Amino acid sequence: MAETRITTNPLVSVILPVYNAEKYLAESIRSVLNQTFTDFELIILNDGSTDESSSVINTFADSRIRYVEHSNMGLAKTLNKGISLAKGKYIARQDNDDISYPDRLKLEVNFLEKHPDYALVGAQARIINEQGIDTGRKHLHATKSPQLCFDLVFDNPFVHSSVLFNKQMLFNVGGYDANHNFFEDHNLWSRISRTNKIANLPNVLLDYREVGTGMSKSEKKYSDQVRNQTKLNLSYYFSQLWGEWKIKNIILSTLLFGLYSIFHPTSLYLFVGLALFTVIS
């Protein structure tokens, strides 16, 4: 582990919400404490766990850890509480069952420091199973801001546990929405992307653990949640189209695609894509 540098005003605050994670929690905490970048605090928030998570947390004596316990309030509210306590300029997310690679914070901090107009950066992830064995699959997403903004309309191209974001830019869009206790990250990234640049690093910097339980993995209505966020995103972008000069381009595109769709009905998706790209770009 790199030499620890303790500061009263760390550059990064790592937010680690915990709910019934005794099986994997120690490994997750160690992966943060073993970062080669050391100017951070680790805020661990125990969201009313009923297992031995608290005992696991209390085995760590590192002075960078700030430990908070509260009754169960859900993930979004827990994250907002952690951010309200954060001293850092940047907020890093860590899930209680995932494993960050040693250079994750260093590479992500370097990116945001060199690109102050970016609000958010994530990374690629390897997928492991409950036993920590490589599944042979990865979460590989786009890296450039225009493509990510487009992808966010329909799905979430960020691994939540891999992201680092600018705290002030987060405050500017209102933080996590407590009404979205599942897919709260998709909702937040969507709002951030409307006024800021975003990116993913091409590097694999996280082991993402697939488990059947957990704060963000126990909800079974995945498709409904994605559909609802897509509706919100489409509503936003088409409201931006309405009244803008770009609407003339969309009208022309509509006529052309209308003719084309007589023979190729699936081109409707292409039209929606073109319209959105016109706004986002």
Main traits of this protein?
281 residues, nine-stranded mixed beta sheet, 10 helices, globular
Provide an overview of this structure.
With 281 residues, the protein is of the alpha/beta class. It is 40% helix and 21% strand. The protein has ten helices and nine strands. Helix 5 crosses helix 7. The termini are far apart.
- Which structural class do the helices and strands define? alpha/beta
Q: What is the alpha-carbon Rg in Å?
A: 20 Å
Number of strands: 9
Q: SSE order, as H and E? A: EHEHEHEEHEEHEHHEHHH
Global geometry: globular
Q: What's the end-to-end separation, in Å?
A: 43 Å
Mean pLDDT: 84
Tally of alpha and pi helices: 10
DSSP helix fraction = 25-40%
In terms of topology, how is this protein built?
Elements: E1 12-18, H1 25-33, E2 40-47, H2 53-57, E3 65-70, H3 75-85, E4 90-93, E5 99-100, H4 104-114, E6 118-128, E7 134-139, H5 145-154, E8 164-166, H6 167-173, H7 184-193, E9 197-209, H8 222-241, H9 247-261, H10 267-280
Parallel strand pairs: 1-2, 1-4, 2-3, 6-9
Antiparallel strand pairs: 4-8, 5-9, 6-7, 6-8
Helix pairs in contact: 5-7, 8-10, 9-10
